[in-house]
Design a protein that fits this description.
This protein is an alpha/beta fold. It is built from 9 helices and 11 strands.
């Protein structure tokens, strides 16, 4: 059978076919983009943000790069509450405050690596990353008699190269799950409530050694956390150091279970 089409019919057919090809191309492009995004997500390496725990252990961590005026008061607060925590210090802070470091270690606190010059680590080469870590590591060993296996990148910035280099050097890169905002111009009430409103088992709380409201906030926060049944421990007692994986979309560190596949 011969099908006879008028010019108008041919025009309509062309429009329909053109629209169909357009839709097909759009859907195909979206599929490819989504697939690429999934592949990028699966390839991304992440540090430890939080730890999956059945108990109520948490960690308060204090970063330091500049200033030490309030640090002695903070140490007194921790001693009063019989707590040991993890400090992350940069190279210049270690060089300027050797006696404070020795006092911290004598009281049972642990010292983590926070780089040497506080750079944007994601912009460095592998050799530059190693130099930042190794210089600070040498200072920590000199002042404490032992090295550190914990590293926190300045500004919380990282990329795959940083994570890979940390692991190559034997470090556990650690971020935080709760930023107390004690580095901002906020009240002690705000800091305390921000932590209490968000805290849960395995959380890692970020604070700073010389924040204006940090001592007062810690004095109020520690008793309240204890009242809620939380045990505050150094990071080395919170994280898993073997047989673990880290969820790539959350940064949650989990123990490996039989039959697990990382997603």
């Amino acid at each position: 059978m011969i099908l006879m089409l008028k010019a108008k019919d041919i025009l309509i057919l062309c429009v329909v076919l053109g629209f169909a090809f357009f839709l097909f191309g759009t859907v195909t492009r979206e599929f490819v983009v989504q697939r690429e995004e999934v592949m990028v997500s699966q390839d991304k390496l992440v540090p430890i943000y939080k730890v999956d725990r059945e108990d109520k252990k948490i960690a308060i961590t204090l970063d330091g790069m500049w200033g030490a005026e309030r640090t002695p008061e903070i140490l007194e607060i921790f001693e009063k509450h019989d707590l040991n925590i993890t400090f992350f210090f940069g190279g210049n802070w270690l060089e300027e405050n050797p006696q404070l470091i020795k006092e911290m270690v004598a009281k049972g606190h642990e010292i983590g690596n926070h780089s040497y010059t506080h750079p944007h680590m994601a912009s460095l080469t592998k050799e530059e990353i190693k130099q930042e870590l190794n210089q600070t590591e040498e200072l920590i060993k000199k002042l404490t008699g032992e090295g550190s296996r914990l590293f926190r990148p300045p500004f919380g910035e990282y990329n795959n190269l940083l994570i890979e280099t940390c692991e190559e050097l034997g470090y556990y890169p650690v971020q935080w799950s709760i930023d107390s905002h004690d580095w901002m111009d906020v009240s002690s009430d705000y800091i305390v409530n921000r932590v209490l409103d968000n805290v849960g088992p395995g959380d890692i709380i970020l604070m700073h050694n010389d924040g204006e409201k940090t001592p007062k906030s810690l004095s109020r926060l520690i008793p309240k956390l204890k009242e809620q049944g939380y045990e505050i421990v150094p990071l080395s007692e919170l994280i898993y150091t073997e047989d673990y994986y880290i969820e790539k979309h959350t940064g949650l560190q989990k123990k490996i279970e039989r039959g697990h596949e990382d997603g």
